[in-house]
Design a protein that fits this description.
By secondary structure, this protein is an alpha/beta fold. The protein has helices at 2-26, 44-60, 75-82, 97-104, 141-150, 165-177, 192-197, 208-216, 263-277, 280-288, 298-319, and strands at residues 33-37, 64-68, 90-94, 116-125, 127-132, 156-160, 182-186, 203-207, 220-225, 251-258, 292-296. The longest helix has 25 residues, at 2-26.
Length: 324
């Protein structure tokens, strides 16, 4: 056993040296790297792109410059990344929209498996079912479901966007609980908060970045979160799953590169971002944005995306969704 451990350590160190030498042989990087953010400046996706770039460039060794290319719910930026030269000088931030778009939008030419190579996972964030603190729906989830069954189609749930990650959570929860809510869609997740507090909707489903400060400030109650296990930042909040509803769909951000990018470059970038995301200041900054810093390598990123794809496909088939 001891001999095996020694061999493993030597192999890992040796592979690191080999990878470093291969990158040097490729003379990479020699200039700044463009980091595409497929959403507008100030959006949650943009914030994470800038955070990853800020901490990552220290270990990459060259500046990482964020370039915003919003449009089409991320489609414009994802397309730009997919069609970029695969030389390691263009990377981008990917959200779950990159998986959903081919099912929902006409004219999509990219696919998460065929068009990109994953570099690293940045974070994950719980989607939460939130109600106004002290309001009529500030009740346990089981009671919420009971009342929804008694009066189907009367509870208004706010959703940011059309068939975003939170919309898929809503659809799966309705199926699991056997209920029907009134789906009130807003242009973005930020609009759901004032509408909840103003009494225009009864609840909303959204990422922790939208509700964590409200929860901490005593403005909302979170009835359930969509993680597999309890969120380490909010260990007191129960999951849907532990309350009897198989709703497991956190929100993720990944870093991707165009398909065809050298595996040597991908591995170099993955290791660089691994070091960056392990920094305490990065973890603190991610927490301030409502997410948990959680690096994962290329293979694990793809496995997570495949699981999400299966969940999305289940919803797409149920609702008979077609590209529009």
């Amino acid at each position: 056993m001891r001999l095996k451990m020694v061999f493993l350590v030597v192999f890992v160190i040796g592979w690191g040296c080999i990878t470093g030498k291969l990158v040097e042989a490729l003379d990479y990087p020699t200039r700044e790297i463009e980091f595409i953010a497929a959403f507008a400046p100030g959006s949650n996706t943009d914030n994470f792109a800038r955070l990853a770039a800020k901490f990552g460039e220290k270990y990459v060794g060259k500046p990482i410059v964020v370039v915003n290319k919003p449009g089409g719910g991320g489609a414009r930026g994802f397309t730009a990344l997919a069609t970029a030269k695969p030389d390691g000088y263009t990377i981008g931030l990917l959200s779950q929209s990159v998986i959903a778009h081919p099912y929902l939008l006409k004219g999509i030419t990219f696919h998460y498996k065929k068009s990109f190579k994953m570099v690293a996972q940045i974070d994950y964030s719980a989607q939460g079912l939130c109600v106004k603190k002290g309001g009529q729906w500030d009740i346990p989830l089981q009671e919420f479901v009971k009342k929804a069954k008694e009066k189907p189609g009367t509870i208004k749930v706010g959703i940011g966007g059309t068939w975003t990650a939170q919309d898929f959570v809503r659809a799966i929860f309705e199926e699991e609980a056997g209920i029907q809510l009134i789906n009130v869609r807003f242009p973005g997740a930020a609009e759901t908060v004032p509408n909840l507090l103003g009494g225009h909707i009864d609840c909303f489903i959204g990422p922790a970045s939208e509700w964590s400060h409200l929860y901490k400030g005593g403005k909302v109650t979170v009835l359930a979160v969509s993680n597999e296990t309890r969120d380490p930042r909010f260990p007191e909040l129960p999951t849907f799953k532990e309350q009897g509803y198989d709703v497991v769909l956190p929100s993720y951000h990944w870093i991707g590169a165009p398909a065809g990018t050298s595996d040597v470059i991908i591995n170099f970038l993955a290791e660089a971002f691994k070091k960056a995301f392990a920094e305490p200041d990065f973890k603190k900054a991610a927490d301030n944005l409502g997410a948990t810093a959680a690096w994962a390598g290329p293979e694990d990123c793809l496995k997570t995306m495949e699981k999400i794809d299966q969940i999305y496909l289940r919803v797409v088939k149920k609702y008979d969704l077609k590209p529009e």
